[in-house]
Amino acid sequence: MFQKIPIAQELGLQQEVSGGERMVRWVGGETRALENLSDRMQVEEAAFRRGFYLPNQSLPDLLGPPTSQSAALRFGCLSVRRFYWQVHDLFHAVHGGEPPASESLTSQLIWREYFYTMSLNNQYYGEMARNKICLDIPWREEGSIQTDLDMWKQGKTGYPFIDAAMRQLLAEGWLHHVGRNAVASFLTRGDLWISWEEGLKHFLYYLLDADWSVCAGNWMWVSSSAFERLLDCSHCVCPVSYGRRLDPDGEYVRRYIPELRNFPVEYLYEPWKAPLEVQKKAGCIIGQSYPERIVDHSKASHKNRQYMEAIRTSMVSSQPPHCCPSNDNEIRKFMWLPSECADHICI
C-alpha cells in the first residue's frame, strides 16, 4: 500500500527519453478536463464563426498544446456525451439553431463509439489472424522486419517528418491524429509493409490516450485491413510532401530532431538531397549525424500498391469476411485528407 499517490519511479517506470522541449504537462481529473473542454469550445466557436468546423482537422496545430480530449475520454475524466452535446449546442447557438451541413461535426466521436461496438465480444480484435473483421494480409515475415521496425520505433527512418512524430511519441506519449496516420501508413502499406499489429503494440505502450478498441480500429483502417470495401484505398501518405504541407517552415521537425535544426528548409524534408557543403554548414552529415533513408518511398509505395492490387484480385471472387462500411469520401474524412490538398497523396 502507498500512503500517497505513487510517482512513476516507485512503480518501476523510468523515463526513456530525457531532455528536449516538452509541449505539455498532462494533468488528470475531471476539474482539469472540464477546463480543457472550455478551452476547446473557444477554438470550436472561433471556427464556427468563420464558417467551418473540425478546426483540429482543417488547421492541425502540431506545435501548440493538444486540444484533443482523447486522454480525458480514455480515463473517464470527461463524459463523451457531454463533449458531443456541448459541441452541437455551441454550433446551434452560433448559427441560430441551424443544423450542421453534414455529420462531420462530431464524426471522430462517432468513430470512437463505432470502434467500441466493433470490438465488443471480439477478444481477437487487436490481432489479424483470428479477427473475423480483419483481412489476412501477407505482411513481411517477422524475421525480416526487426531492423526496419526498430528504426521506425526510434524515429530513425531517414524521413524527418516521420522521425519527428515518432520521437515526439517517445518523449511525450502524445501524437496529433495527422501524425498518427502518417507513421501508421509508413509502417504498413505505404512503405515498410510491416503488420499493423506491430504498430498497435508500440502505440498501446507509449500513447497516453491509448485505448485498445480505438487504437486497434485506427490501425486496421489505415493499413486497409478493415473498414474498407476490399483493399480499395489507393491513397498512401507521402512522408515528404505531407510534412511540408503540415509544417512548411519545419518548426515541428526542428523541435524533435535537433540534428537537423540548422538545415535549410528547402532540404529539410529530403536531407539526402542536400549537397555535402550544405550538410557540413548545417553541422549534420547524412548517414552519420542523421540516418540515411531506410527505404525509397516512391519505389516502395508503388511496389506496395501492386501488392495490394494482387491481393485484392485474389480475394475478390471469394468475398472474404471483413468489416467494410466505407466509400472513398469516408476514407478522405477519416484520414483528414481535404480534396484541395492532394499533392502529398500517392495514388
Automatic annotation (TrEMBL):
Any one of the GO CC terms: perinuclear region of cytoplasm
Molecular function GO terms recorded: DNA binding; FAD binding; photoreceptor activity
A Pfam family this chain is assigned to: FAD_binding_7
Protein name: Cryptochrome-1
GO biological process: circadian regulation of gene expression; entrainment of circadian clock by photoperiod; negative regulation of DNA-templated transcription
Site feature location: Electron transfer via tryptophanyl radical: W139, W196, W219
Co-factor binding comment: Binds 1 FAD per subunit.
Keywords, sorted A to Z: Biological rhythms, Chromophore, Cytoplasm, FAD, Flavoprotein, Nucleotide-binding, Nucleus, Photoreceptor protein, Receptor, Repressor, Sensory transduction, Transcription, Transcription regulation
Cofactor(s) in the UniProt record: FAD
Predominant location: cytoplasm
Keyword Transmembrane helix: no
Keyword Nucleotide-binding appears in the UniProt entry: yes
Entries under InterPro entries matching the protein: Crypto/Photolyase_FAD-like_sf (IPR036134), Cryptochr/Photolyase_FAD-bd (IPR005101), Cryptochrome/DNA_photolyase_1 (IPR002081)
Domain of life: Eukaryota
